[in-house]
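Weekly structure sync, notes
Attendees: PL (lead), two postdocs, one rotation student
Agenda item 3: pending single-chain targets
PL asked that the sequence for the first pending target be pasted directly into the notes so everyone works from the same version. It is reproduced below exactly as submitted, 205 residues in total.
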Amino acid sequence: MNDDELIEQMLQIFAKVASTGQRIPVEIIQGLNRILTYRLEQGGQPNAPAPQIPAGSDLLWILSGGNRDAFINYLHTIPDPALNALSRNPIELNRTINQLSQQITMPHGEVQQGIPKADLQSSNVYGFSYNPRDKHLYVRFNSGSVYEYNGVPAQVFKIFASGAVPAKTTGQNQWGKWWKGKIPSLGAAFYNMIREGGFPYQKVA
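Predicted structure, written out during the meeting:
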């Protein structure tokens, strides 16, 4: 068995595991991406036509801010069978992510009222800034209001900033959509970690 045949068998095994509905760890997905890259570098199907991007995946890529892990989480949780299936197919998932990263340029550097826009799109939170020395957190909402929260520990800020709390409801407004179980979710993380955290706050704008 040559190297190319061995790599092909590895890909088939991972694809079979994914087809059972089990989640593939991100580390394995990244490893598969390296394997696919290796195959192309070694001449494996360099002229294969690029597959079409699954419907809706471009919107989730933008919603994730171009963050691979956030994109995969959205594929797992969004109520769409086709996108759920994509999350369980590591080969197609990597192809889709590679295409999206090449075709869609994520905007960065936008600032409003001194607050940089968050990488993760949110229907509630525009962005935030945090000073770990004095533990002051400034949050700008999509409505334009800015609040200062005092005494926010760095660990709490990290949970909020990564949106590491799933949404509890489903709905939409003029700034976006959310669904129950959506993670990352800046809005849910803000409500659970900051608003419900009891930190002193004041409106500053």
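Discussion points:
- DSSP finds eight helices and eight strands in the chain.
- Residues 3-19 form the longest helix (17 residues).
Action: rotation student to compare against the earlier draft before next sync.
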